[in-house]
Amino acid sequence: MALALHPWRFLRWGRGAAPGLRFPTRTEGSRGQCGPRPLRCSEVVGNPGTFKRGLLFSALSYLGFEAYQVISQAAVVHATFKVEEILEQADYLYESGETEKLYQLLAQYKESENAELLWRLARASRDRAQLSKTSEEEKKLFVYEALEYAKRALEKNESSFAAHKWYAICISDVGDYEGIKVKIANAYIIKEHFEKAIELNPKDATSIHLMGIWCYTFAEMPWYQRRIAKMLFATPPSSTYEEALGYFHRAEQVDPNFYSKNLLLLGKTYLKLNNKKLAALWLMKAKDYPAHTEEDKQIQTEAAQLLTGL
Length: 310
Hints:
mainly alpha; 14 helices; 0% strand
């Protein structure tokens, strides 16, 4: 940044720019006649040597500035290319279910100011917390770490639907460690960011699915939590299974079979609404969903258990 300031000091073309530059106002006629006389070169430019040095200095400064611009632009292009390359690698690892490798890749850039890198790092941190081999102590560290990255991503780009989505997800995770009061209070923030994510990208099935989870969670809230919520808030968050079902179906319409958990929750919501036929349909889809992650395997097991109980 310091380099960027120097060229401007050398490009002042206002007062005092060229030493000795002056325009005489005295009029003196030749042979006693009044009127302007021709100006000598030295009077226009002052000391010719000084003028030439000033002109050369300005020209070199201008050329230096032009060179700096070219180098700066090249650096920006290179940096942009590098970020795009990292994002491609990260997305490949994510799709491949390589959670630990993905985290190791992105953790190298944890000081980045790029929102796209940061929200992916938040997601990777959260995914590491979800691994079965992660201890409870490590899980808590990863959960709070993920929230910090998501928060920074949102600060860098408030127009990023993914930053809003992962910020909401990470706030929800942190609520598990901060008690029922904080969890309920955070529910308003979570809903706000999910809705903003959907507004920014109506075609993102995951954001729609997460709004469905929000509705499902408050539809099945236990009576004692409802009582606490009413004591703490004048209008506590609430929802219905019908609302949840609407979001889950909308997510499927946007991107069919995009997520095993959406299939599972469609089945579970139909169970809550006592529609066993449709519940069995969606639970079977969840059970047969190809398992790419540990979560997919857990969902297959849960779906199979629920089908056994029908």
